[in-house]
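Bumping with the actual sequence this time:
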Amino acid sequence: MRIMLKSKIHRARVTHANIEYEGSISIDKKLMEAADILPFEQVHVLNINNGARFETYAIEAEADSGEIGIQGAAARLAGAGDKVIILTYRQVEEAEVHKHHPTRVYVDEKNVITEVKSAVGTLPLWEK
């Protein structure tokens, strides 16, 4: 088994941070659906602005809201306006690794989807 990238939301803009909330990252429902992220699924968040990385779980925000909210202690690691990459991973059987293609969701400044990709270029990375 290998742990492989399942999906990512690339360069989303944090809309708010609330240190008093119990924890999690709230993500626009449409972004979650496009990236195949379920409510309460573990996610890794990478802050492009300051290099911070943290794990939390996803909760659904209203569809078409553009919301990316950092809650609880993680609000010390990302604030409104920061750009983040949100990642999920999955275990893939060794025999299936060559068939695996992560989903990548690209967004604009308002966290509106601009593109969704499910393959890496024309060939998987390991065939180049």
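The tokens above came from a reply further down the thread. The longest helix spans residues 29-34.
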